[in-house]
Write a structure and sequence with these properties.
The complex is a heterotrimer. By secondary structure, chain A is an alpha/beta fold. Chain A has five helices and eleven strands. In chain B, β2 and β3 form a beta hairpin. The longest helix of chain B has 8 residues. In chain C, a hairpin with a 2-residue loop joins β8 and β9. The chains are: A alpha/beta, B mainly beta, C mainly beta. At the A-B interface, β6 and β11 of A face β1 and α1 of B.
Amino acid sequence: MAGTALLGRLAWQFGTLADIVQETPRVASLYFDIPEWQGHLAGQHVDVRLTADDGYVAERSYSIASPPEDRRVALTVERLEDGEVSPYLVGELRLGDKLELRGPIGGYFVWRAGEDRPLFLIGGGSGVVPLMAMLRHRERMKSKAPTRLLYSSRTLADIIYREELGGLASAGDGVAVYHTLTREKPEGWKGFTRRVDEAMMQEVAWPKEQMPAVYICGPTTFVEAAASLLVSMGYPPLSIKTERFGATGGSA
Amino acid sequence: MRLDGNAIGGLLREIFAVEMTSAVGTCANCGAVNEVGRVHVYVHAPGTVVRCPACEAVLMRVVRGRGRYWVDMSGVRCLELAEEA
Amino acid sequence: MGFISRGFRGKRRDTASSSRVPPGQYVVTDWPVLSAGPTPRVNVDQWTFSIEGEIDAPKRWTWKEFTALTTENITKDIHCVTKWSKLDTSWKGVSVDTLMDGVDTAAEFTTVFSDGGYTTNLTLDDITGGKAWVAYEFDGQPLHPEHGGPVRFLVPHLYFWKSAKWVRGIRLQKEEHPGFWESNGYHIRGDPWLEQRYWGD
């Protein structure tokens, strides 16, 4: 794989928007062609920079949704109603537009196929994005690592990648997907319908004796609650990697 | 609201020219050892403040302005980095 | 000019120049929350405000004593070094002149200190003569914790990092001791009209 560039200052590059896939009413995946892209690892992110004509600059980080094996780099972005950058990316940016970005960034929250250790992925809302990169990478590399995804969404319509996750789960390839919805109980729903709690973890998590590698991603409160739960259940803290998402342009 | 060291991966890469989120730091205040990806980060400030997840002491401060960075790492007693990527 | 993101406007900001807006600032109508650490949980039953250091008899007020002091209602513009300005903010607080009444000191400098360890340095001159308050109400309501409540320092003629949140006291000093941001790149004084943002400005 062309280097994942963990050395050297990262230059700002331009990606050209080549495709848009609407994933849910609020979430879209943007596919970019980036001529100077050096490759990446599953779990890494990019920093995106927008410049207005008066020189005002806004920067945000977005996890890469595509696996290292794909030529086009995909970002999956949730449009936040009071957001500054996300309504531009999902709504204004058009095919052919250029986006300034740098990456890949991150050496801690990454998963490389090749380990057969059980994998436990826990995602809250758009926290599922880097985990999806890991699942796609796993599939491309035909990894045998037994994998479970616990994914919390508000409602059925908010589940990102729902069909693709269903496909991975029914492929008989060692991936199990557990959904929980926190704001809806749809008729005929077979998944959980509450916030992640200890009983749910007990049911879903790999037993700690199997020493799973755990990756938790989502809003800060979600991540900290899930990590604390696992630690209190006896999972070694060092086996749990976390990535907190949050607004980086605070306002109240 | 706090984030973690992943959120400043880009900033640290600018300053140190190497991926830092997997570097391991020892808190000068309480001795806790954590990968940069785990530490608490406050980005909504006049600068970036990095705090120990165990004791919330300041590990690092970074201010950027007028083409310069001011970096205080006195809160990190020791930083461990891999030799090769 | 470098790359411009087609169609990007960014958040609502008014860059029209006005004599009320210092150089390099833009006016916002919301109130951005900036914080260098976790929001301290302050128990007003245990809260005190003190004036200490170069003073013969240090002064201390409990919450009850403090809120019994004469207050002022003031309306001021505030300017953050991160470039946003908010006009006509209204506060209720105790003037530092009231707190310093009767205090005899040789100190020219002060450190204003807060719960959570934050400090900022100010000259005595910059916080007296009707220039600074210790405020506990904003817009007619008790000051919200994320904006520094229950009590914050307010010195609006300087960049807002000097208006320390969760304030607990003023230490009078004969020498200048750069505070949390002043020791790490931010200007020792921070006058927005002279654009004193960073060291060397």
